[in-house]
Amino acid sequence: LSARPKLNSCRPGPNLHPPQREDPVETPQSRDVVVKLYDISTPELCQAMSVLAFKPAYWFPKLSIGVGGRTWSYDGEPEETYDAIIANAAGGPPLRTWNLGPTPLSDEEIDVVISDMGATDYAPEEYDFFMRNCNHFCYDLSERLVGSEAWPAVQAEFIDERVLHESEAILNNMPGGALQQSLTRSVTRGVQKIIVKSWRKEWKRALAEYEEQQNIPLEQRISSA
Prior knowledge:
By secondary structure, the chain is an alpha+beta fold. The protein is built from six helices and five strands; from the N terminus they run E-H-E-E-E-H-E-H-H-H-H.
């Protein structure tokens, strides 16, 4: 499967408030692909983005994807993590949890898929705050793990219009139109390398602390991988 096309210009439409939290309705089986939606915003982040974008920013959606007790996200590189760490960053449990059913792939085959994505469509140089972020990665990976029909139409529409749309449309109200959008994205690309490096350093620290607290055996720890 090919990756969702990376947009070159912003989508139209307003940015919306985060959805109300809904608890998961079923316990996943061992090979089920589970996608979770969090809100990792803070008042300070929303205020800063609102000033940058000349429009209100209400939340920062973040998707994760998991199979069999393993969880991944993407911040410039595909990375394995823990649900508890994302929940801590979000200040609570996910707003939505989707069980897409079982993947036919083994853990080894999943690792190959993720490695290939990290070397191509989701290589570090492809990362973009607005047009290619953790949400795009998790959506694309879910289709590779379950198939192109992984998402029922209503859920696929929710992901597109309520999750991916948030970052893809946030700059669409800027004075100067498309030219200012392009200039802002160009400046952001230069700054995001520094920010992502800081994020990843903090993420590694959180991983190491969590694994130490949980007494995870050294050979099973992902913080040192």
